[in-house]
Write a structure and sequence with these properties.
The structure is a homodimer of 339-residue chains. The first copy, chain A, has 3 domains: 44 residues, no CATH class; 128 residues, Rossmann fold (3-Layer(aba) Sandwich); 127 residues, Rossmann fold. Chain A is of the alpha/beta class. The longest helix of chain A has 16 residues. Helices cover 43% and strands 17% of the residues of chain A. Chain A is elongated, with a radius of gyration of 26 Å. In chain A, helix 9 packs parallel to helix 10. The interface between A and B is large, with 60 and 60 residues. Strand 2 of chain A pairs antiparallel with strand 2 of chain B. Chain B binds a DNA duplex (30 and 30 nucleotides) through helix 2 and helix 4.
DNA sequence: AACACCATTGCAAACGTTTGCATTAAGATC
DNA sequence: GATCTTAATGCAAACGTTTGCAATGGTGTT
């Protein structure tokens, strides 16, 4: 037999690298971590050697020793009752922004969902040393699980309605103000028979509805709540029914999300109701589609970028042992053609 | 000072649990892993005890010992040149489907992007024991990095164009067939002056364009390539320019993605070009928005669900040491109102 | 009664880091 | 020249699992 060529040579470990450099393992370790205890030139020599040999530290071993993972878990928390899915463009945008913010802080992102993580989030993620902290996207109805995790000492932050009182910090838009602004805008544009489409039982939407009601009260307009699941399909179906059964009894729609708005918009256009002439419509979120729809959708933009940054910062604060509080991030009115 | 109450008692470890159960650590370990070496009733007793005390195994230690992580890394591979962002609804849908498929196999999902992972994917993920394998979403132009990782022995699978020959398996839609089908559909509907919107330099889109050309050749129609970045903004701008400068010189558009199609659609509607009467338009992907647009967008649906399943399966095959090959997943024509 | 066998459990090593402490060498101070 | 200080490095323990092997006790066979 000829001598086999060792293609994928056995994994280099720190002690091997140290041997190569002619130093002890501890020196190598410190050198790679840029510990000033080690002479600068030694450090650089070892770092160069590591690059050359494509060495990388074994994260499992490091985590075991350090008792921390440098990982943040993100849980997409969907409620079982709603048809809102993980595919919801807005949720995914939030996740994507969180991903960036997490990386910027030198952490990695473990993507999870309420199904995979099971009941005991603290046990699974924290005790299980899979992550140092948890970000929950979507307050949902599962607040019991969140509360439990927080009580068990999980560093945790939630995207949701900041007004909700809880034993964990919540970051989210100023939904009340957003709802009010949207309503005032519709009214300013001349709408006087308003519809709110969405489900106020959901915390964030409840606040938007409160803002809506407040705006309605201040003006001389009528208002109606169309309680639907927050999907475009539900909105489409519901507007269709409304038009078929009652005719056009409204001239302004505040949709609780852009997806809902777009579903409604489609139904209106199919029935030749002119937007914005006959009906003005405003959404919430500012997803990518909002500006591509025709007419382009007026909406309340949620600043997910800033929010993601905030979520991560607050989590890091907790990781350093300190407490922190819920916080609202300002939303803004984006006027386009639909109003 | 009163005696403080120990709220979060120090982390329970396996040996503690074993002591509680009156067995050795090894027995406890085997019991939790349902090892039949251990008597059934002992196993159940220990498992119950673990539940009761909210015990969970330390993943870091386990990974160190086992030399495997039960984690799959997903890299969103965006090209620097394009403005296509991580927010692209289609990419996110793919990730979301992969997430589900990964979980179904009992793995966790580490979300990453080409920036965070750096140059040396093998070093970072595999040698670094952060993941057992890698799924790359988006073939991109960064094929060098992928190839390098594969060569280094990284278990890896790529979402992209399966026709590309590579040293790693690629899963993706039958883009040629999809492109051909789309084109034939446009022609069947009476279009005879066709536009292809997209950038054929991108592997997947190149195949779609080849399908397009093939369809065009077989029929008596004219065709033009509109080479644009694959964003709705670019499509919108490009159709606007086209109409302004040349007038309506086409009656059928094959957009390389739904986002592109929707951008084009908006420009057409703004200039009162009737869809589908004056211009028929078909997209690719079938993102959520396709059915909500007005008119609803005819498109080639990519079966991301099946593809995700396949990606994960192929990765697991590699993890078990076997080789596997690229594979196409069938796409399907979804006829809606835009054609 | 001696032996082999099986079912069940325990012992101890190993996985690859990081870090408190000890050690060394060299220069500074008296 | 003896002692102290400082800079640089090495030793060895610990992090919490998993698993090959040894050990135990009981049952069945000859």
């Amino acid at each position: 037999m000829s001598k086999g060529i060792c293609l994928a040579s056995t994994q280099l470990k720190l002690s091997d690298l140290a041997k190569l450099a002619g130093v002890s393992t501890s020196t190598a370790s410190r050198a790679l971590n840029d510990n000033p205890l080690i002479k600068k030139e030694t450090r650089e020599r070892i770092q160069a050697l590591a690059k050359e040999h494509h060495f990388s530290i074994n994260a499992a071993a490091s985590r075991l020793r350090m008792q921390k993972t440098k990982v943040i878990a993100v849980i997409i928390n969907l409620e079982a009752e709603t048809k809102q899915s993980v595919d919801d463009p807005f949720l995914l945008k939030v996740v994507s922004d969180i991903n960036r913010a997490v990386n910027r802080q030198g952490y990695e992102l473990l993507l999870s969902n309420s199904h995979m993580a099971g009941e005991d989030w603290h046990g699974y993620f924290i005790s299980g040393r899979r992550a140092d902290g948890v970000i929950v996207v979507g307050q949902g109805k599962e607040q019991a699980k969140i509360e439990l995790a927080a009580k068990a000492g999980t560093p945790i932050v939630v995207w949701g309605d900041p007004k909700t009182s809880a034993n964990y910090p919540i970051v989210g838009s100023d939904n009340f103000v957003g709802g009010l602004t949207a309503t005032e805008h519709l009214i300013a544009k001349g709408a006087s028979k308003l519809l709110f489409m969405g489900d106020p039982a959901h915390a964030e939407l409840g606040e938007r509805y409160r803002g809506f009601c407040h705006g309605v009260e201040k003006a001389d307009v009528t208002a109606k709540l169309v309680r639907i699941d927050i999907t475009s399909e539900a909105a489409y179906a519901s507007i269709n029914t409304l038009l078929r059964e009652n005719g056009l009894t409204f001239d302004g729609i505040f949709a609780c999300s852009d997806m809902v708005a777009l579903g409604a918009l489609k139904a209106l256009k199919e029935r030749y109701v002119s937007v914005p002439n006959d009906v003005k419509i405003i959404g919430f979120d500012d997803i990518a589609m909002a500006q591509i729809s025709f007419p382009a959708l007026t909406t309340i933009k949620q600043d997910t970028h800033a929010a993601a940054q905030l979520l991560v910062e607050k989590l890091l604060i907790q990781l350093s042992g300190k407490m922190c509080e819920s916080q609202e991030v300002p939303s803004s009115l984006l006027i386009r053609q639909s109003s």
